[in-house]
Amino acid sequence: MNAPLLLLPLAQDKAQLLSQLVQGLSPAELQWLSGYAAGLAARPEALPLVPAAPEVSSRLLTVVYGTASGNSKKLAERLKQQAESAGHRVRVLRASDYPLKELATERLLTLVISTQGDGDPPDDSRALYAFITGKRAPRLNGLSYSVLALGDSSYPRFCHVGRVLDERLTELGATALVPRADCDLDFEPRAKLWLDETVQRLAVDGPALAPVTTLRSPAAPQLHTADRPFVARVLANQRITAFQADKDVRHLELSLEGSGLTYQPGDALGVRPRNPSWLVDEVLAATRLDGDVVVARDGLRWPLSQWLVEGVELTKADRPFLLAHAERNGDGTLKPLLLPENQAALRDVMASHQVVDVLRRYPASWNAQDLVATLRRLKPRLYSIASSQLRAPQEVHLTVALVEYQAFGRRHVGSASHHLGAQKEDAPVEVFVEANDRFRLPRDGTRNIIMVGPGTGVAPFRAFVQERAESGARGHNWLFFGEQHFRTTFLYQLEWQEALKRGTLHRLDLAFSRDQASKVYVQHRLREQGAQVFAWLQDGGHLYVCGDAKRMAPDVERALLDVAAKHGGLDEDGARAWLMQLSQEQRYLRDVY
């Protein structure tokens, strides 16, 4: 080992000993060694003796995660940390990065995977899901596995992806280490039990490395997170749809000065929402509860009114709340909706009813403690970032559609969009950055990109175009944008026209669905320009889709399959394989919700 510059502070004999010691060490072992040395320098008298290392286990735990929001990734990394602290060798891979051919020889596998919407795998997991559930999946008689499933019980097929993979792995001959855990949006308590149980079972299932006490060097400053958000100040809150438009869409600019927060195009900004005070008053009136009563939950003691403003979800009635409320409802009219055969009716209730609607339509008695304990915690909302930090270093921009409608004789709003839309200049907003590594610009700036972003789905593409302009990327940028009306809902119209003039946007195809007798959407424009779309992709281009997951994204995917069939001469299976290959190469990426 020749590293004379690194070893200069040491005498020659010590340098040779150190060289022999570090030779062949893994990155994890080198990291431990650096911490050990730092601890020895700081407190030599308190340094514990290092036990002799036992024989290293040949069993490697592979943790594969699939995520849309980032929660599965965080839990997978927590499992790695816990398992390594217990002495196990662990590797963590995103589902899109997992080599499918290795599944046949895997011996310890953990899947931490979410379900997107009503039963779909996250985009990064589609290939893995198709492989395991398909005909090419190998027999897995030597595999021990565990599954942590994340989902949203507001959807009938709650944790569907995790359940299907769990059942399929058993069919293929694998043995479950621990029972599958299905986690709702409030996943922390259930996930913690599963993590602890999995690590304990690993110790029983096979040998591990001996645990080693590590000495920590001083902790690096923590960035702001969901638990420790940064209080940003509003710089601008501008309506960017015409006042006569059916939609109220806002462009918000927030100051990040002093936060230390950084982001990349494609990332999201997490916003801590607040329920409006008038909605809290409606809930208090419907329950006849005193807002000053102190309620304890999750280590906090707040007045009920504070819980209803910032602690619990009021704008959505989820299944656990409906189940609990049905038990308290005296006339029994709500219970039939919760039967398995009435899933469609239940889905309609959850989609149309807020908490106060349920309280009014199906009267029942609640006390403050039980109500707060039953309602779902108010979670941060994620918004695609609409700016590049190369252009606005101390700012972050958002494109927010205000959710507001009338139902059951009362006003309904979205908690986060209403909260943001109501903020005046210099008002505080609690925020953090949520990285989205699966929605990144190509590293090669000469690559062409195609962006499909109808409505507020255009937000990240504003960031993309800014970033490519500021970084001097030479690849061409092509945007497909759609909305209802050219005159009233053409978001960022002047910016796109200026970008075309400057040559930082090279093509712009528009689809305004209500401006003619027959509705026209972005998928129609993709088909119309199919020959050039296919040529750009065959030439190494990247295609991005952002927006509605229920209708738009499947319609766009169908259009892409049609483009491949018509202009690539592919049959249905061939077109799907082509699109899957683009996805695996991270050249067809979606950020849909």
How would you describe this structure to a colleague?
This protein has 593 residues and is α/β, with parallel strands linked by helices. The protein has 5 domains: 21-50, no CATH class; 60-205, Flavodoxin domain (Rossmann fold), CATH 3.40.50; 230-273 and 380-434, Elongation Factor Tu (Ef-tu), domain 3; 277-372, NADPH-cytochrome p450 Reductase, Chain A, domain 3, CATH 1.20.990; 449-592, Nucleotide-binding domain of ferredoxin-NADP reductase (FNR) module (Rossmann fold, 3-Layer(aba) Sandwich). The chain is built from 21 helices and 21 strands. Strands 1, 2, 3, 4, 5 and 6 form a 6-stranded parallel β-sheet that branches. Strand 3 (108-114), helix 5 and strand 4 form a beta-alpha-beta unit. Helix 8 runs parallel beside helix 12 (355-361) and helix 20 (552-568) packs across helix 21. The two termini are 52 Å apart. Mean pLDDT is 89; it is low at 1-8, 45-58 and 207-222.
